[in-house]
Amino acid sequence: MASPLADRMRPTTLDEVVGQRHILGPGKVLRRLIEGGTIPNLIFYGPSGVGKTTVARILSAQAHKKLYRLNGTTASTADIKAIVEDLGSIDAMGGVILYLDEIQYLNKKQQQTLLEFIEDGSITLIASTTENPYFYIYNAILSRSTVFEFKPVEPQDIFPALLRAKGLLEEETGEELVISEPALQRIAARSGGDVRRALGSLEMLALSAGFDEAGRRIVADERVDEVTVRGGMRYDRSADEHYDILSAFQKSIRGSDENAALHYLCRLLEAGDLISACRRLLVCACEDIGLAYPQAIPVVKACADIAMQVGLPEAQLPLADAVILLCTAPKSNSATAAVEAAMADIKAGMAGPIPRQLQNKHYDSAEVERKGQFYLYPHDYPGHWVEQQYLPDALRDRIYYRFGENKVEQAAQGYREKQRAGRGRA
Question: What does each C-alpha distance from 179 to 156, 161, 162 come to in angstroms?
Fold first, then answer.
C-alpha cells in the first residue's frame, strides 16, 4: 500500500521545509545549530502537520550518531530501558540520539528514566509535542533542553507545496491532474496551517477525480468545498487551542472589536462548544463591562439561557446579540480590580477581628471594659449614611474600589459625594 502523499513528499533538507522561517530562516538559532552539527537536547512544540517530525528527522540524519525512534503513544518503560542497556555497545560509544515523538504521552516515571542519561550526554533527546511542554513535560527534562515553537504554516507557504504535490501526483500516475489555482489556494487557506492536511485533501481530490475525454483527471472547484468545508479549523476541547480561542474571544470583546469577537464565537460554535461560549460571555459581562453598564449582565445571562435552551444552530442568534452588545458597550474593570485587591489582602493573611459594632448581637465577656455593640443604623441618619468603621483595624483605611470614568460610575460617585457632604455623625 502506498504511503500518504505527505509522507512521500517529506522534505529531506531544511530548504525544502514549508514555513517556520522564524526558527529555520537564514541566521536563525535552530538553523545554525543544525548546520553547525552541534545538537543539544531539543523539544519541538506546536500543532500537528507543521514540520516538527520532519525537522527532527533532518537533524537526526546529520548527527552521525546511532539513532533510536520512539513514539510516546506506544513506547513502554521496557523500550526506554532497552535503549539505556544498549549505551555500552560499540556503535553507541559516542552517544545516541533518541527521537521521541509525542513525548507528552510518557508518564513522569518514564521521563525520569531518561534523565540521568540526558544529563551526562550519553543520550541526546530530540522530542516533539503538540501540547504545551511546560504543562506536560517533566521540569528536570525541560531545564536540560531548548524548546522551539513551531507555528501554523501560512497559506502562501502551503500553496507552493500543493503545486509540487500536484506535479508529483502527475509523475506517479502518468496522468494530467487538472485543478485550478483558486481551488489550490482554497485548500491552502482552509487547512488551518496544517501542511499534512492540505496535502491529504489534494490527494483525496485527485483519487476521486473523474476523467475527461483526453484522459485527464478533472477536479471540479465545488469538490474542494466538500473536502475542506470544516477541515481548516483547529480545535481541541481541553488543551492549548481551546484556551487560545477563549482568550482571543474575551480579548476581542474587551478591545471592542465585534468583528473579531464574532469570528471566535463562530469557531467555538462550529466545534460544538456552546457551554464555553456562554460561560465566557458571562465572565466578560462581569469582568470587562461591569459597572459601566451593569444592565449588560442580566441581558447576557438571558441570551446565554436562550442559547442553552434552543441549542445549536439557533443558539448563534442570541449569542451574536450578546457579543455585539458587549463589544459596543462602555467598559470598566473597576469591580474586577477591587475584588482582586481585596482577595490579595485575604490571601496575605490581612484580616483581623471583625469590629465589635458589626458583630452579631451577643454578650461581652467579663474582660471587655466598654460593653455593648454600638452599631449605628444608617437609615436613622440624613442621606441614609453615618460615618462608622466597617473594616478590621488592620485594614481600616484600605481602599479597594475606585470609581471608573464612565457615565454610570461617575453618577454613582456624584451621589456618594452628595450623600457624605454633611459628614453625618452620631
Answer: 17, 14, 11
Contact 327, 250 (CB under 8 A): no
In eight-state DSSP terms, residue 152 is P
Angle between helices 274-284 and 296-310 (to 10 degrees): 170
pTM of the model: 0.58
What is the C-alpha to C-alpha distance for residues 50 and 17, in angstroms, rounded to an integer?
A: 9
Kindly report the CA angle at 299 between 295 and 301, in degrees rounded to 5?
A: 120
Query: Edge to edge, what strands does the sheet with 123-129 contain?
Result: 66-71, 96-101, 123-129, 42-45, 146-149
Backbone angles phi, psi at 44, to 5 degrees: -100, 120
Which residues in 130-173 belong to E strands, given as ranges? 146-149
Give per-residue pLDDT as tens, 55-110.
888 887 777 777 788 888 888 888 888 887 777 666 666 668 888 888 888 888 88
DSSP category for residue 190: T
Query: In sequence order, which residues have a C-beta less than 8 Å from that of residue 345 and are 6 or more positions away?
Result: 351, 395, 398
Cis preceding linkage at 313, omega within 30: yes
Residue pair 187/195 in contact by the 8 Å Cβ criterion = no
Instruction: For residue 159, give the 3-state DSSP assignment.
Output: helix
Element (H, E) at 304: helix 296-310
CA distance 16 to 161: 9
The HSE-up count of residue 133 (CA atoms within 13 Å, CB side) is 25
* Three-state DSSP state, 77: helix
- Please give the angle made by the CA atoms of 77, 147 and 190, to the nearest 5 degrees: 100
Angstrom distance (rounded) from CA 41 to CA 109: 19
